[in-house]
Amino acid sequence: MYVIDFPGPQCIIEEWFLFGLLLFHSLLTWRIPVKRFLFLFVLCSLCFTSIGTVKADENEPFLKPWAEGVPYPMVSEIVFPHGTQHVIVQDCDTDPEYGFLHETSIGQLDGELIVGWYNNPRTELSGKTIQRARRSKDFFHWSGLETVQDRGNDDGWMYVGLQFLTLDGKLYCFTNQEFGAEKPTECLLQVWKPETKTWEILGPIAEKFLSMQPPILMENGNYCMSGSLMPPSRNINGTTPVVIISQGKEIEKPWRMVRIDPEDYVNVFAETAVLANGPNLLAVTRRENTPFPNFYESRDFGETWRKIENRVFAASNSKFAAGTFSNGYRYIVYNLPGFKRTADGKIDYKTDTDGNPTTEGIGMGRGTLVMAVAKPGETAFSTIWKVSDRTGSTEQGASHYPTVLEYDGFVYISYTGNHKLRNCGVTRFPLKSLE
Hints:
Elements: H1 9-30, H2 34-58, E1 85-91, E2 100-109, E3 112-120, E4 130-136, E5 146-149, E6 157-167, E7 170-179, E8 184-193, E9 198-207, E10 209-211, E11 216-217, E12 223-229, E13 240-245, E14 256-259, E15 272-277, E16 280-285, E17 294-298, E18 306-308, E19 321-324, E20 330-335, E21 340-341, E22 347-348, E23 369-374, E24 383-388, E25 399-407, E26 410-418, E27 422-430
Antiparallel strand pairs: 1-27, 2-3, 3-4, 4-5, 6-7, 7-8, 8-9, 10-12, 11-12, 12-13, 13-14, 15-16, 16-17, 17-18, 19-20, 20-23, 21-22, 23-24, 25-26, 26-27
């Protein structure tokens, strides 16, 4: 059969025309009885339609940034999930030694939560850098401070973002190591030693990689961790979205890096989050000077990627968190900007002379942290819930750089908050409240 790969209705019409001519030619040339001709026509039509449908579906993302026909919610329209609770784990307002805090992460081991972050004395990546953490068994009461990593900033070494992973009864920490501000050297793997209550460095797993969310276990048995790669030029205003893939559960061995976008970003911190749905992966990456982040998808466990068009999902320029809950809900946590909607419910934005969206008229602040969800069976995100904002018990001036943990029926989200100085906040709510 003559088959053309087709992307749209015009090609479908062209193929059916060719298909009809072919059968009509067969009827005249080989003098096929009319009944047999009609039987062959129906049979081939069914096969043809099936082939065409599969090819058309392959051109569609397995998960779209936002559902068609659903107005993208504004800040005033979203609410907290039922049963939401907030707590402040560490507040720089009351810390005489460290007045700056950023890039929190949350994990658990044996029923005990752990939340970590990095500190500087007063300003970001200036002076001594140290990673610290607190633990809790009930969410409301937290332990004293523990040191995750501290080299006293000797010779310019710094430890910034960190991600926790529980595997085979052990608690691991992936630590971003830099030599000077915004100059990553490698991602280090550490393991918690309960007998000595200390963290032990096992070694580097990836070079020039900045981890942005905890590893996710894929169905093929490998872990995938998303982040950004510093290019060889070490241009601090240009990074590349990447994932690194483990060798199964042997996470202490070197991880293999895959670039999500073949081009280096310019004037962008390509902070990237990834969620998995079988072999399919969806990545979302921070962008500057536009309200629309980049989306990418992989159909082969992160080995190859393609870009997804997005002018329907708006986010402030900040870090994302993404994943899939045990009930099948897919999620992205991010900062929702302020914007106006058009009459048909779409985001109202302006473009530059080249037709690229700009942030003119859009509030790109980090005052409202939200979670977009796609329910099981949905092919696009369709609902947004509030996580933290300037109201409520925490009264955060800003809430950003989230990390998500699902544990024991609850969703936990840690983030960098702001009062007078910065703090580490955690929000939790029952997973079933999303249903």
